[in-house]
Amino acid sequence: MINIDNQMDFRDTTLLERAALITLESVSPLNPDLGPESAHADMTIVLTDDRQLHELNLDYLGVDAPTDVLSFPAGEVDPETEELYLGDIAISIPRAAQQAQTGGHPVEAEAQLLVVHGTLHLLGYDHSTEEEKAVMWAEQARVLEKLGLSRIQIQE
């Protein structure tokens, strides 16, 4: 189940849920602790603002700046439901809107890109080396194509 905490009154959260589900169904996890059940795992997407992403970035990564998306992998089984919980994704909707304007596409497309990117992180993908980045960007492009967003690219 994809839980969406819509703190910003984002218009169409079904697009974001679909982006997460297609990513989970299309991409094999790199994290060896996650098996095929990750395609049916639970996760939460928090739609918030720059202030909260700035605080999270500082608290968890030591980076004193806002960002567009952060992922917090869990990869644990919920003892009550016995379902795999992948983790949380936090997205700054104002930053997504700014990046969408810069990229010349709708904020809904940018938010879907950020959900795909964040979900890939929950599955164990990263982009800290050129090799990791090449793999992650290829998977991201494949999912975006399935979503009809092949022209959208993450801004670095």
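^ that was protein a. below is b, sequence first then the tokens
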Amino acid sequence: MSPFNALLFYLPNHAFARQAKPAVSAELWQTAQCIQQSIQHTRPPHTLGLGLIIRYMEWDVALYRAALEQGMPPAKAGQLIETINWQVFGPPIELGFKLSRLRSAKALVRARWLTDLMFAVMFTKPFARTVHPTSGAVAFDVTACPLANYFKSQGVPELTRHAACSLDHQMAAQWGLQLQRTQTIAQEHPLCDFRFVPPKTPR
């Protein structure tokens, strides 16, 4: 994990381009840039932290649409977004988990502290979360997701699971945990249930 990649996260245009351009053709990237420029005025106003996340989602929409326009199958385009987003989001998440070692050696304690921090700084209103205190898991429900709303407003609701939901599972694995989830708002359910638990087979 490079600290540079973690810090680059706060420059979304550069960070996204750094990961996306090598993965696609020059023509596809140019199309994505044009789409991003055409939709950036529709970016909803949010807090600084959530606004940063939305800017990445905006690039996801642009690249996904560009890929579909060039005939890429939706599943392949979605996987492209998953890969790029984890390359962008993975390093700062990894850095945060390493720093959380200063608080505890226990993965669940660290995960609880990190998710609380994320919802205090990044996933702010209109995100809504209900926490369920428990000793054997980090458990909470997200009852309002502006990311799902954003992708729906852009006409690509199916992109939510690739651009956002998939990151949760990869984050859990990076923390040495498993994410148990039975429903998501992206699937038209009333909430997303998050249950971070120790793996059935210890690492």
